[in-house]
Amino acid sequence: MTDVGQWVERSGYSKHLGAHIEELSEEGARIALPFREGNSNPGGALHGGVYASLSVIAAQATARAVLGAEAGPFHTVGFQINYLAAAINEGVSVQSRLLRRGKELCFFEATVTSESGRDVSHSTLMIRGRQGSTANDGPLAIMQVGGDDPGKMGPAVTSAVPFIHERGIEIQHMAGGEARLFMPWQDSHEDSESGGTHEGAALALLDTAGAMAAWAVTGPGPFKASTPSMQAQVLAALPKGDLVAHARVSYRDNEIFYSDVEVMGIDDERLRARGTIVYRIVT
């Protein structure tokens, strides 16, 4: 249990977020996150990537407690999160619960709750312990978004959103329903166990890229927008290095946009994580 707590609180990413363990057992984990402007969108609303990050951290902490450190390395094979409401200018906590334990796979649910007592996200997760086998490098990425047009919104988003700014994310292209985002390596992205990029940071990049692809369809305007849902898989170990996300809107149903996203290492173009972001823009 002590090793698990050290993984949470010593990893550069979760430490930078401000996460700390309040409870941990083989049944579940409770992790608190005080409000910090750097985790937010403009106006103090918690960034969607933070909900996702906390859910993965809590589920993986429980998987480590259940299976033991020798069952690693660990990765999130399947992840589905629904965003229920916004936490604005307040801290949150996440509670994970073990649903089923297998030899390699553990199934969880995780609920993020605001300090005011409202459930703000709910997720289901499948965490895998590779039982000491070497982490794979993943397949070659398929999606390639070219172009060098960040559009009218790209520079403004980068500077105006505290969470995106702290991650160092650069919107390199954002036009025609496509987006390409670059996230440079920094110590605040580190996973203390693997030495590479924390899954939470990669999922936050994936979340942001999907949203930017949707905005690349509508362009800026006085619209209301949010992420109702995200599905993702981490396919391979995340490197200690720069990441790039390629995103494309595959389908639009009025105000609902479905964006497919692939995250890869900038050097080898191996697919590390992928997912679909369901984004809503009310025009």
Account of the 3D structure:
- By secondary structure, the protein is of the alpha+beta class.
- It is 24% helix and 38% strand.
- It folds into two domains: 2-129, Thiol Ester Dehydrase, Chain A; 154-282, Hotdog Thioesterase (Thiol Ester Dehydrase, Chain A), CATH 3.10.129.
- The chain has six helices and twelve strands.
- A hairpin with a 5-residue loop joins strand 11 (256-265) and strand 12.
- It is globular, with a radius of gyration of 17 Å.
- The mean pLDDT is 95.
CATH architecture call of the largest domain: Roll
The major β-sheet equals: 12 strands, antiparallel
Structurally, the number of domains stands at 2
Poorly predicted tracts of residues: none
At the first level of CATH, the class of the largest domain is Alpha Beta
Q: Which structural class do you get from the secondary structure elements?
A: alpha+beta
The CATH topology of the largest domain turns out to be Thiol Ester Dehydrase, Chain A
**What is the overall number of helices?**
6
CATH H-tier superfamily of the largest domain? Hotdog Thioesterase
Compressed to H and E, one letter per element, the order equals HHEEHEEEEHHEEHEEEE
Can you give the mean pLDDT? 95
Radius of gyration: 17 Å
Rounded to the nearest angstrom, the distance between the terminal CA atoms is 49 Å
Note the overall shape.
Answer: globular
Beta-strand residue percentage:
35-45%
Total strand count, please?
12
**Residues in helix, %:** 10-25%
Order of strands across the widest beta sheet?
1-2-4-5-6-3-9-12-11-10-8-7
